[in-house]
Amino acid sequence: MKLAGVVRPVGTAPDVVLSRPGAPVDPAEPAIVALAADLLATMRAAPGCVGLAAPQLGVGVRVFVVDVTGHPRATTVHGAFVLCNAEVAEASRWRVGREGCTSVPDLTGDVKRAGRVTVTGQLPGSGEPVTMTTDGFEARALQHEIDHCAGRLFLDRVAGAHAVHPRKVYR
């Protein structure tokens, strides 16, 4: 059974839930399945958003959604997916890239991340284990959302004030 998600407000820094590590979840819990649907609906409602984690919705658990489909920087695309209790199992090809975040709406920053990752996690509903290998922009998005679930913002990873920039607004 597919749930229609509810679009929820996205919290912004310095909301305390954004700086606390999220708790592991039981992916089969109905509340987690509903949260997964809400994450997907909320991400799709936010222009330019390619990922969203439960802490951004004020829920301190390790669940997130990513979908880089159609993004001009994406080379590898797995479509929309939700992962629970995800962790980076392998990381390589480190490089600096510019990141933004719905929870930090006025800034972007230069962050060093792996250009290729293997991530393990579980699917909501079934709890089925998943291993995903990806690269480029999708790898960056996965690491960004895993960081949210660990209580970190991209600002925690920038090299200093020189690596933080005002967000450009395109009309």
Short description:
By secondary structure, the protein is of the alpha+beta class. Helices cover 18% and strands 33% of the residues. It has 2 helices and 6 strands, in the order H-E-E-E-E-E-H-E.
Task: Describe this protein with a few key phrases.
171 residues; alpha+beta; Peptide Deformylase; 18% helix; globular
CATH class category name: Alpha Beta
Structural class: alpha+beta
User: What form results from the Cα inertia axes?
Assistant: globular
User: How big a fraction of the residues is strand?
Assistant: 25-35%
The count of β-strands is 6
Low-pLDDT stretches: none
User: What share of the residues lie within helices?
Assistant: 10-25%
Number of helices: 2
Order of helices and strands: HEEEEEHE
Oligomer: single chain
* Proper CATH architecture: Alpha-Beta Complex
Span between termini: 39 Å
Q: Estimate the mean pLDDT confidence.
A: 94
State Rg: 15 Å
| Corresponding CATH superfamily | Peptide deformylase
Main β-sheet description:
6 strands, antiparallel
Give the tally of structural domains.
1
**Topology-level CATH name:** Peptide Deformylase
Please tell me about this protein's structure.
By secondary structure, the chain is of the alpha+beta class. The protein has a single domain, classed as Peptide deformylase (Peptide Deformylase), CATH 3.90.45.10. 18% of the residues lie in helices and 33% in strands. It contains 2 helices and 6 strands, in the order αβββββαβ. The protein has helices spanning 30-45, 136-149, and strands spanning 51-53, 63-66, 81-101, 104-122, 129-135, 164-166. Strands 1, 2, 3, 4, 5 and 6 form a 6-stranded antiparallel beta sheet that branches. Strand 4 (104-122) and strand 5 form a beta hairpin. The protein starts with 29 loop residues before the first helix and ends in a 5-residue tail after the last strand. The model has no long low-confidence stretch (mean pLDDT 94).
